[in-house]
Amino acid sequence: MDAPNDTLARIAAALERLAPPPPPAADPLAHPAYLWDGTVLKAARAFDPLPIALLSGMEAQKASFVANLQRLAGGIAAQDVLLWGARGTGKSALVKSAVGAVQADGAALALVEVVTPRLETLPALFAAIADAARAFAIFLDDLGFEHPGEARALRSLLQGGAEARPANARLVVTSNRRHLMPRDLAEQASAINPRDSVDDSLALADRFGLSLGFHVVDQDAYLAIVAGYCATHDLPFDPTDAVGWATRRGSRSGRIAWQYVTDLAGRHGRAL
């Protein structure tokens, strides 16, 4: 008969196989970009953003956002940022490209993309990076809320809460909605004072010191984006073909332009 200690050891080993311990956290000083899954900081496998010069039609947004990241990386006052607007207009691409551009200038800045919907885990992320000798852009992509309580939780992290983000970190949020309103407006409609409920929702957007809007591009801007991609990748530029692609997709945007260029490169047997 096995000794009790042997039995306990086998049980413990079996439990570890069923639920292995989380991997060790990545060194917050060693990588250009990270992922936060709610429990541990992981190094991004490949961080290869588009050159920021390729993002056309958003010159004012680029200048404001890059300047804010440079301030953050330099340890001086910088804003939390909300990038809002139509889908496919380059919000997420700008975040990554701008971080890459600031890093290329030698600044001590890293991107941390939050890939968990559980915003209550953000204080643990803040604790993991607070003492690191570099700055961090905390990226929440395509943010939306099902309930007003979720928005209030993020609001306290931005300003005024007991566990606000540290001085070396700023939040960068993208959303299709300018005011980050909850998806379900039923609660506002049924509130005793609907105006108070709406004001509570709008208070979150007010916490972002820098708010940048992105709008649907017209045909000329769409073609300019395609032309820039084609020139960079040495592909033939055919405006009629590019417009036909956008027409079949029912949309014109930077995302549609890149999808067209990807298809064009494939037709010419080229890799991007």
UniProtKB/TrEMBL annotation:
Entries under Gene3D superfamilies matching the protein: P-loop containing nucleotide triphosphate hydrolases
Matching InterPro entries: DUF815, P-loop_NTPase
Signal sequence interval, chain numbering: none
Name of this chain's protein: DUF815 domain-containing protein
Organism of this sequence: Sphingomonas desiccabilis
Organism lineage string: Bacteria, Pseudomonadati, Pseudomonadota, Alphaproteobacteria, Sphingomonadales
